[in-house]
Design a protein that fits this description.
heterodimer; A: about 325 residues; mainly alpha; globular; B: about 260 residues; 11 helices; about 65% helix; Ferritin-like (chain B); PaaC (chain B); Aromatic_CoA_ox/epox (chain B)
Chain lengths: ~325, ~260
C-alpha cells in the first residue's frame, strides 16, 4: 500500500444516465474486466487519478530505498548484506516499472520526479520513520512489505493494463522480501537477549505506522468510491487493515513478540481481531511534513538529483556528439 | 612447479577477496543515491557481484588456513592491519565520476588478472575465476562506457573526470607492485606475477581514456601498502567501523 489518500475527481460516481456514450462504453469494459490499454479512450479523471496513484507508488519505492539503504553498510554478515542490497535494488526496479507505467499515461519520469522533489506529490507516510536497529530491517520486510502486499495483490487485477502487469512482477518480489524480513525477525527473536530486545523495539515502533499505511477509514470517501468503480482501488482501507492485522498477529505470537496494543483481542463473532486505531493526528502530521525523517528523506532525493545533474547532462551530450559523428560519417 | 606453502596461498586469496569486499562495500554506499535509476540498479549489481566473489575468495582463504574460521569471521573481525586490499578500492566514493573512474581503473586490472587465472594450476582458483571473469567482463564494459561518456560529455563532466583520474592515478601502480609472495604464487602457477600484467593493462586503459579525451598524468609515482598491509589509508578504519559494528558490539550473536 504505497499510495495513500489518492484524490479522484471528487465528484462521486456518475450515474449511467449522466455518462457520455464514451464513458458508458468505458465503464462497461471495466465492469467486464477488460483491461484498458494506453491507446484506448479513457475519462480524463481516470487518467489523472491513475497518474497520481502510480506516481505516488513509484515515489514510495524510490524513497523507500532510503530507510533500508541506511543499513546496507552495517549489515552483519556478507549474506545479509547481499540480501539487503538485492532487496533495495529491487525497489529501484519497482520504481522503474511504475514510472514506465505512468509514462504510458502521458507524463514523463522527469516531470514526476520534479513533482516529488518540489513536494507537490507525496510518497507513503511509512518511509518517514527511521530504521534504528538491525531488527528494523526485518520489521520493514515483515510489516511494511506485508502491508504493501495486502493492497498490491488485488491490484494485480486493476483495470489499467500496464499498471496491472507492473503489479504482477512487483508482487512476486514483494512476497520474497516479506519472507526475508520474517527470517531476520526469527533470527533476532530467537537470538541473544539483546537481539530479542531489538526485535521487540522494532515491532513497537513499526506497528502503528504500518497500520497507518492503509490510510484512514474511507468508507464514506467519494474519491475511493470513484476509484473502486474504475477498479483502480479494489478494497476499502478498513478491509485491508483488518486482513493485515489478522494475518500478522499470529506471526508475532509465533516470534514470541508482543504487539503493542492492549486492546488487541480475538473477536469470535466477526472472525477477526479487535484492535486499536493508530493515532491519526500523527498520520496527518507526517503527511504535512512533520514525520521524524521527512526532511532527511526529501533532502536525500534532492541531493541525488542535483548532484547527478552534471552526470545526466554529460551522458546526454556524449550521446548527441556520437549521433552527430555517425551522421557526419555517413 | 614450486611447492607453495599455505600461508602464501592464503595471502593471495585474501588479497583477491579483500579487494572485492572493500570495493563492493564502497559501491553499495551509492544504493538509493545515484544520479539516475538505471545507474542505481547497475551499481547495486556491480556491488552484488563483488560481494558474491568475496564469499568465494574469502571462503577459500579460510579453508586453506584451516583454522575453522568462516568468510564472515575474516570480513567482520579482522582489524585494518590484516586487510590486504589495494589502497585504490578503499578511497572514498567522491562524486559519481570519481566512483566510476575508480571502478574503471580496478575493473581493467581485475579483468586482465581474472583472464589469466582461468589457467591457474589451482582448480578452485580456476573455478572462481571462471564465474568472476564473466561478471567482470560486464563491469569493465560498463565502466568504460561511462568513463567515455562523461569524459567526452560536457565541459564540466570532462573536467570532473580528469580531476578523478588525476586523484586516482597515484594508486594505480600498487596493482602491479610484486613482492615475494607474488613471486612464490607465480612460480607455483597459481597466478601471474602482477608486474607482468602492466602492458596489457596500459593498452586497455590507454584506448578507453583516449576515447574519453582524458590525459593520463605524467607520473609513475605509486602509493603502496594496502596489499602488503604495511600502510592503509585513513579511510579503511572508517569503513570497518561501519561494516564491523554489529559483529563487534554483539560478539555472541548469530544473524
Amino acid at each position: 500500500m504505497y499510495a495513500q489518500m489518492v484524490k479522484s475527481t471528487g465528484e462521486g460516481v456518475k450515474s449511467r444516465d449522466d455518462m457520455s456514450p464514451e464513458e458508458v462504453a468505458f465503464q462497461d469494459k471495466v465492469d467486464a474486466d477488460i483491461k484498458i490499454e494506453p491507446r484506448d479512450w479513457m475519462p480524463d479523471g481516470y487518467r489523472k487519478t491513475l497518474i497520481r496513484q502510480i506516481g505516488q507508488h513509484a515515489h514510495s519505492e524510490i524513497v523507500g530505498q532510503l530507510p533500508e539503504g541506511n543499513w546496507i553498510a552495517r549489515a552483519p554478515t556478507l549474506e545479509r548484506k547481499m540480501i539487503l542490497l538485492a532487496k533495495v535494488q529491487d525497489e529501484a526496479g519497482h520504481g522503474l516499472y511504475l514510472y514506465s507505467a505512468a509514462e504510458t499515461l502521458g507524463v514523463t519520469r522527469d516531470e514526476l520526479t520534479e513533482a516529488l522533489l518540489s513536494g507537490k506529490m507525496k510518497y507513503s507516510s511509512i518511509f518517514n520513520y527511521p530504521t534504528l536497529n538491525w531488527a528494523d530491517i526485518g520489521a520493514v520486510g515483515w510489516l511494511v512489505d506485508g502491508a504493501a502486499i495486502m493492497n498490491q495483490v488485488p491490484l494485480q487485477r486493476t483495470s489499467y493494463g500496464p499498471y496491472s502487469r507492473a503489479m504482477i512482477r512487483i508482487c512476486k518480489e514483494e512476497s520474497f522480501h516479506q519472507r526475508q524480513g520474517y527470517d531476520i525477525m526469527m533470527k533476532m527473536a530467537q537470538g541473544t537477549p539483546e537481539q530479542k530486545k531489538m526485535a521487540q523495539d522494532a515491532l513497537n515502533r513499526f506497528w502503528y505506522p504500518s497500520l497507518m499505511m492503509f490510510g484512514p477509514s474511507d468508507a464514506e470517501s467519494v474519491h475511493s468510491a470513484q476509484s473502486m468503480a474504475w477498479k483502480i482501488k479494489i478494497n476499502t482501507n478498513d478491509e485491508l487493515r483488518q486482513k493485515f492485522v489478522d494475518q500478522t498477529v499470529p506471526q508475532a505470537e509465533y516470534l514470541g513478540l508482543t504487539v503493542p496494543d492492549e486492546n488487541l483481542k480475538w473477536n469470535e463473532e466477526k472472525g477477526g481481531y479487535d484492535f486499536s486505531e493508530p493515532d491519526w493526528s500523527e498520520f496527518f502530521d507526517v503527511l504535512k511534513g512533520n514525520g521524524p525523517c521527512n526532511n532527511d528523506r526529501l533532502n536525500a532525493r534532492v541531493n541525488a538529483w542535483e548532484d547527478g545533474q552534471w552526470v545526466r547532462d554529460g551522458l546526454l551530450a556524449h550521446a548527441e556528439k556520437k549521433a552527430a559523428r555517425k551522421v557526419a560519417a555517413e | 612447479m614450486a611447492e607453495l606453502d599455505k600461508t602464501q596461498l592464503a595471502q593471495f586469496l585474501l588479497r583477491m577477496g579483500d579487494n572485492t569486499l572493500i570495493l563492493g562495500h564502497r559501491v553499495s554506499e551509492w544504493c538509493g543515491h545515484s544520479p539516475v535509476l538505471e545507474e542505481d540498479i547497475a551499481l547495486a549489481n556491480t556491488a552484488l557481484d563483488l560481494l558474491g566473489q568475496t564469499q568465494l575468495w574469502l571462503g577459500y582463504a579460510v579453508e586453506v588456513q584451516g583454522e575453522g574460521k568462516t568468510a564472515d569471521d575474516v570480513a567482520f573481525l579482522r582489524d585494518a592491519w590484516d586487510f590486504r586490499n589495494l589502497l585504490l578500492v578503499e578511497l572514498p566514493n567522491g562524486d559519481f565520476g570519481q566512483t566510476m573512474m575508480r571502478q574503471f581503473l580496478f575493473d581493467a586490472f581485475h579483468s586482465v588478472l581474472l583472464g589469466r587465472l582461468l589457467q591457474s594450476s589451482d582448480q578452485m582458483v580456476r573455478e572462481i575465476a571462471e564465474k568472476a571473469s564473466k561478471e567482470v567482463a560486464y563491469h569493465v564494459e560498463r565502466s568504460s562506457d561511462t568513463v567515455v561518456g562523461l569524459g567526452d560529455g560536457t565541459e564540466e563532466s570532462h573536467a570532473r573526470m580528469q580531476a578523478a583520474l588525476d586523484y586516482l592515478w597515484p594508486y594505480v601502480g600498487e596493482m602491479f607492485a610484486s613482492d615475494d609472495n607474488d613471486r612464490a604464487i607465480a612460480a607455483a602457477g597459481v597466478a601471474p606475477d602482477p608486474a607482468s600484467l602492466r602492458d596489457e593493462y596500459d593498452a586497455l586503459i590507454g584506448k578507453v581514456l583516449a576515447e574519453a579525451t582524458l590525459r593520463i598524468p605524467d607520473s609513475d609515482f605509486a602509493h603502496k601498502g594496502g596489499r602488503t598491509g604495511t600502510m592503509h589509508t585513513e579511510h579503511l578504519g572508517h569503513i570497518l567501523c561501519q561494516m564491523q559494528w554489529l559483529q563487534r558490539a554483539y560478539p555472541n550473536a548469530t544473524w
